[in-house]
Amino acid sequence: MQPHGSLKKQLAATALRAAGIVVVGASVGIAVNAVRPHGVAFARYLPPTLCAQSAPSQEIGVLMPQQAARLCGDDRTLVVDVRSGIAFAEGHVASAVHLPCSGSHADRERVRAELVNKEALVVYGDSEEQAHKVASDLGAGMGRPGLSIAVIAGGWRAWQEAGLACAAGPCDDCEGMLSHASK
Amino acid sequence: MPRSRVNRHVSFALRAGVALVFVVAAVMKIRDPAAFAEQTGNYHFFPELSNVIAVVLPSIEVLCALALLLGPWRWRNAAALTLACMLLLFTVAIAQAWAHGLNLECGCFGSGSTRVGPWPILRNLGLLSALLTGLWLDPGRRRKPELS
C-alpha cells in the first residue's frame, strides 16, 4: 500500500504528463493543418446554411394558400416557416415551426425529428424558391417516400393577402376551417 | 504460464485494441477535417471551437494511442487518463444529442460515422472498460515508485 502523499504525487505527475500529451498533440495538429494544402481555417466554423447550397431534386407540390390552410392544425402535417427570425416573430402561420434559410444542418435535423410521425410537410417563405430549397433539403435523406411535400404558392405574402385565419398568433380558427374543409 | 505473464499479454492486447481504434478514428478525421469540424459544430458544444477541435483532436488521439501502446508505464497511465477523459466527454455529447432527438452523425470516425444513439455510447463504454482493464492488468502499475 502506498502512502497517501505518494499516491497524490503520482496522480499529479500523471495529470501533468497527460497535459503534456494534449499540448504536444495539439501542437502537432496545428502544425500539420498549417502545412497541408486543404487545412481548415483556424477560426470559428460557420456551418453551411440550408439555402446557400444546391438542394437535391425532390418531388415538391405547390399548394394555394387556401389549400394549405385546410391542413393547418392537422396533427399529421408540419408547417415550416423559412423566413428570418424577425419576420417569423412578427407573424406566421400558427403552429408553424421556424427553420430559416440561414439555418444549419443541425437546425434541419431538429425539424426532421419533428417530421418523424407526420405525413405531410408544408413549407413557405418570402418566396416559393426559398421555400423550395428548404423543402428539398428537408425531404432528401429522410427515407420517407410516403411523405408529401409542398410549398405555398406565393409564400407568406399570398397567405396574408388571402386573409387566412391562421396568419398570426394562436391558430384559433383552424379547427373550424378543417371541419369546413371536410364538409 | 505464470499469471503475471498472462496479465501482461492481456493488458497489451487490450491496450493495442484501444490504440488501434483511436488511430483508425484519428486517420478518418484527419482525411476530411472540414467534415469533422461540421460534425463537431452540430453538437452545439462550444460551436465556436469546432474548427480548433477538428484540428487538434485527431493528433491528440494518435499521440495517446502511441503512448498507450509503446510508452513507458508512466506515460501509458497519462495516455490512458487522457483517453478516458475524452471517451467520457464524447459519451456525454452523444448522449445529450440522442436525448434531444437529434439525428446527427456522431463524428466518431469522421465522415460516414454512425448516427448518435445507443451503439456509439455502448462502444465508448466498451472502450473505456477495455482501457481501464488494460491499465489495471499492466505489470508496470505494480512497480515500486522510483526514489529519485
Question: What does it look like?
Answer:
- By secondary structure, chain A is an alpha/beta fold.
- Helices cover 46% and strands 11% of the residues of chain A.
- In chain A, strands 1-5-4-2-3 form a 5-stranded parallel sheet.
- With 148 residues, chain B is mostly helical.
- Chain B has one domain.
- In chain B, 72% of the residues lie in helices and 0% in strands.
- Chain B is built from 5 helices and no strands.
- Chain B is elongated, with a radius of gyration of 17 Å.
- The model of chain B has no long low-confidence stretch (mean pLDDT 87).
What would you report as the Rg of chain B, rounded to the nearest angstrom?
17 Å
Strand runs of chain B, count: 0
What's the CATH C level of the largest domain in chain A? Answer: Alpha Beta
Shape of chain B: elongated
- Give the low-confidence spans of chain B: none
> H/E series of chain B, N to C?
HHHHH
Number of helices of chain B: 5
Quaternary assembly: heterodimer
Biggest β-sheet description of chain A: 5 strands, parallel
Beta-strand residue fraction of chain B:
under 5%
Tell me the domain tally of chain B.
Answer: 1
Which two chains form the greatest contact, residue counts included? Answer: A-B, 37 and 42 residues
Number of strands of chain A: 5
CATH topology tier name of the largest domain in chain A: Oxidized Rhodanese, domain 1
Strand content of chain A: 5-15%
Spatial strand arrangement across the major sheet of chain A: 1-5-4-2-3
The Cα radius of gyration of chain A reads 25 Å
> Helix coverage percent of residues of chain A?
40-55%
Question: In summary, what is this structure?
Answer:
The complex is a heterodimer of chains A (183) and B (148). Chain A is an alpha/beta fold and 183 residues long.
Secondary structure elements and their pairing?
The complex is a heterodimer of chains A (183) and B (148).
Chain A: H1 4-35, E1 61-63, H2 65-71, E2 77-81, H3 85-90, E3 97-98, H4 105-115, E4 120-124, H5 128-139, E5 148-152, H6 155-161, H7 174-182
Parallel strand pairs in A: 1-5, 2-3, 2-4, 4-5
Chain B: H1 3-31, H2 33-42, H3 50-70, H4 73-99, H5 118-137
Helix pairs in contact in B: 1-3, 1-5, 2-3, 3-4, 4-5
